[in-house]
Amino acid sequence: MDRDLDLLYSVNRDQSDLEFDLNIPRRYIRDMDNPLEKFTEADFRKRFRFSKEIVQNVLLPLVGHQREQITNRGLPVPLIIGLLLTLQFYGSGSLRIICGELKGFHQSTVSRVITKVTRSIYEQSRNYIKFPENLNTVQTQFQTIRNFPNVIGCIGCAQIPIMSPGGPNAELFRNGKRSFSLNVQIVAGPDLEIYDIVATNPGSYRNDHVFNKSAVKTRFEKKQLPGYLLGDSGYPSLTYLLTPFRDPCTNEEKRYNEAHAQIRNIVDRTFGVLRHRFSCLRRLLRHKHETICCIIVACAVLHNISIAHREVVEPDGEDGVEDLAAAASDATTDSQSGQLVRATILRNHFSQL
C-alpha cells in the first residue's frame, strides 16, 4: 500500500471493506458522525469541494456501480464515508489536515478505500472526459473571444509534483527544475472543461513528445476531429495545431499572437481551477506511478462534473500554473503545411485593422 494512504487515520477500530451500497443503514453512518449532518453546507464544501446535493445525487451514484462482498471482520465502511474520505484527501492534499476530521479506521482499510474509490472514478473517465458531440457550438464560443476560426480546444501541459518513483528510470521523471514530476497534458474547452487528458508521461518529456504519443493527435491525423487546437511554442505548427509566431514582425502577426495568447490562456486557467479545487495536485504525491495517474484523471473527472453543475471556484493568486508550468521549449518540427494554414488564417482574419 502507498505510504501516504497508510498514514491517513489513527487506528480506532478494525474496519474492513468498503460497502458499495447506496441504501446504507443510518446507524452505521451515525456511528461515524455522518458528515452530511455534522457540517454546515459551507463547511462541507470547504472540506469536500462539493455541495451536499452533488455528493449525494451525482458522485455517490458515480462510484456506486462497483460492489464488494461484506466480510464479518467488522462493520463495513459505508460508501458515503469512503467517498468523502477520498474527496477530502484530493481537496486538502495534506494528511495532517484530514486526520481527525472523520472517525478513524484501520490504516489498511483507508488505503483500500481511497484506492478503490479513485479507481472507480477513473473507470468512468471515458464518460466524462471527451469532446462534445456538437463541436460547432464550441467553435462559435471560441470565435467570439478573439475571432479565431474553427478552434475546438486549447492544448497545454503542466508539471504535477511527485516523489521519486525509484528504479532505473527514476531520472526520467526529473523535470527542468530538477524536481520529480509528471508532465500532464490536457485539451480544454471554452468553459474550462477538460476534453482530453494524458497523465502518464515523466516530467522530463517535452510537450511535443507528449503530444506525439497522445491519442488526440492520432484522432486529428485520422480526420476524426475537425477544426484546430491552439498550443504554445512547445508544440509544432501543424495543419490542425496553431502555434504563435516566435518572432512576430508585422502588425498582423502581433495581432495574431495577442489573440492566440488570450484564447490559449484558457488551458492555464483550467489547470489553475483544477489545482485550486484539488490541492493534492499542487503538493507532492507519494504514491505508485499507476495510482498517481489514476488520481490525476479522477480529479479531472470531478472537475468536469463541477463545471457541468456550475460549482467551479476560480483560483486565487497562489493557484496559478506558473510554478508548475511545463517548459515551453521551442519545438523544431514545424511542418510547412502547418505554416501555410497559419498564414492563411493570418491573412483572412488578422490583416484588417
From TrEMBL:
Its main location: nucleus. The lineage of its organism: Eukaryota, Metazoa, Ecdysozoa, Arthropoda, Hexapoda. Coiled coil: none annotated. Belongs to the HARBI1 family. Its cofactor is a divalent metal cation. It comes from the Eukaryota. One of its GO terms (cellular component) is nucleus. Pfam families: DDE_Tnp_4. Keywords: Hydrolase, Metal-binding, Nuclease, Nucleus. It comes from Dendroctonus ponderosae (Mountain pine beetle). This is DDE Tnp4 domain-containing protein. One of its GO terms (molecular function) is hydrolase activity. It is found in: Nucleus. The keyword Nuclease applies. InterPro entries: HARBI1-like, HARBI1_dom. The keyword Transferase does not apply.
